[in-house]
């Protein structure tokens, strides 16, 4: 008589239960690893976007040029103007606009940073002195911004919420620059960030009466 025998039904059920538990534990561990990896990748992507946006903002501010412009209705606008209300806008003329293709345009650029529906946006114009049909190009610099504020340090060492100060004369408002700009940004995942940017000194002025005389 052959003494070999197969597994009993109970043994088979126990083995299946053990394999099922091992498979479930493995799946849960793999799912946890994948979720962690996805979260890490998303965090890393948001961090890179944040770094790029802050670098672009700092580059614009630190390359500010004392060049007032005219809007589409011919009104003169300050070389730098900003506020901290609602959209926390900062608009300025910057130098150093790269022109690798040698296009017929100015070497300076008019840009605006603003907060719009959780998006920190950078707008720029192809011309300095605008016509009524001049429309800005919009770049989405950073998503997930829950709050943003700006302050401006005047010549007396006092912080202003808007620029130019209301006490400036008409001439001063066009060419007067702050000593520094403070940015406070609240991000949904990165928390609050603060940047204090000291503007360069000794910038050459463009006289207000020359604004609009040169077509970029």
From TrEMBL:
Lineage: Bacteria, Pseudomonadati, Pseudomonadota, Gammaproteobacteria, Pseudomonadales
Highest taxon of the lineage: Bacteria
Annotated transmembrane regions: 6-27
Protein name in the entry: Type II secretion system protein J
Protein family: Belongs to the GSP J family.
Key words, A-Z: Cell inner membrane, Cell membrane, Membrane, Methylation, Transmembrane, Transmembrane helix
NCBIfam families named among the record's database cross-references: gspJ (TIGR01711), IV_pilin_GFxxxE (TIGR02532)
InterPro entries assigned: N_methyl_site (IPR012902), Pilin-like (IPR045584), T2SS_protein-GspJ (IPR010055), T2SS_protein_J (IPR051621)
Entry membrane topology: Single-pass membrane protein
Localization in the cell: Cell inner membrane
Principal cellular location given in the protein's record: membrane
Family matches, as PROSITE patterns: PROKAR_NTER_METHYL
